[in-house]
Amino acid sequence: MVTIKEIAKAVGVSSATVSRVLNYDPALSISPAKRQAIIETAEALNYETPRNRNKANGQAAPSLLTKLVIVHFLEPSDEIADPYYVGVRLGIETRCRELKTEIVKIFHSDALPEASLLESASGVIVIGKHSNDEIEWLQQYAPQIVFADFDPRMDQIDSVLSDMGIATLKILESLKASGYRRIGFIGSHEKLNGTVTPFGESRCAAYIDWQKRNGTFDADLLALADCSSGQSLRLDTGYRLAGGLLALKDRPDVIVTSNDNMAIGTYRAIQEVGLSIPDDIGVISFNDIPVAQFLTPPLTTVRIHGEHIGEVAVDLLLERLSGRAYGKQVRIATELVHRGSCRNAMES
To answer: What is the Cα–Cα distance from 156 to 187, expressed in whole angstroms?
Structure first.
């Protein structure tokens, strides 16, 4: 049986290049002559891909991913409180069930996981933000790593996420087109590598930059949580921060919250002071968790496809196991879902 390695030796290229040509990888940069040489050599040697050989035998192709470890940045109770991250994990697990892959889940704790768990797996998917020290430790023991919902900005590490900066600009431009002028923001600072970066969280940074470019920045409209410990984007945090914005003499006419949980807390704060959504003040958010559509009024929010992020993370891992030797960072597009919690210029 002819192998990819034999074809690569005959043509004078790497096995990874042969694999990508025979699997019609559109991202591969290779001369037409070299591509043709690989195809003709494969045909001359009667090469068949493993998938085609298995189809001919009436069998499904065996998965290269026999065991997967999921390393989560949240504790189980925190994940349950944020359905978005449940969606990311379920996307991973659904894809793995299709592949008949064994899954081991490791949630956040004060201690690092057992190195043997990582070493015994085909690969590891890491959900959420991790420090450089944690990433270095993971690289030491994990055979292959993909990050989901976080980009460690290391060229050789695969990652998949949605760009929250772009999503924030989508929200702000929509609000501006809908006639809103005093746009408040509820979120948090950035915490990574044990250091808090004031105003560094991507949604917050995009909000400040957009407001300054439009000449409308007002520091009073910015309400940020202390992220020195634990999860900061909770319902009770949104409730507390919204209360501060509503107490302003010149309060905002719409509030952007960093996630739907904070929006729910904001709803409560608005209702307690006797204001109406959206007649007196609008609310808009991120994530589109299941309860968002059942609030009164239903919440306008950016839909982040958490399950797709999880699915693509598994596919990136499979690509690595199939021979891809370069890093790949994938961005999953978001979708602004207009409901009843703020005005919509498209419906005017």
So the answer is: 31
Q: Which amino acid is at 226?
A: D
pLDDT of residue 232: 58
**Dihedral (CA of 166, 170, 205, 191) sign:** negative
Residue matched to tokens 């026999």: 66
Alpha-carbon distance 185 to 252, whole Å?
Answer: 9
Per the structure, the count of domains in the chain is: 3
| Separation between Cα atoms, residue 210 and residue 189, nearest integer Å | 17
Identify whether 173 is part of a domain: yes
Q: Classify residue 111 as exposed, middle or buried by CB count within 10 Å of its CB (0-12, 13-18, 19+).
A: exposed
At residue 58, the pLDDT reads 47
Does position 60 have pLDDT exceeding 50, yes or no?
Answer: no
Tokens (6 digits) for 313: 């993370």
Task: For residue 61, tell me if it sits in a domain.
Answer: no
Phi, psi at 56, each rounded to 5°: -65, -30
Give which of 243, 239, 279 is closest to 261, Cα–Cα: 239
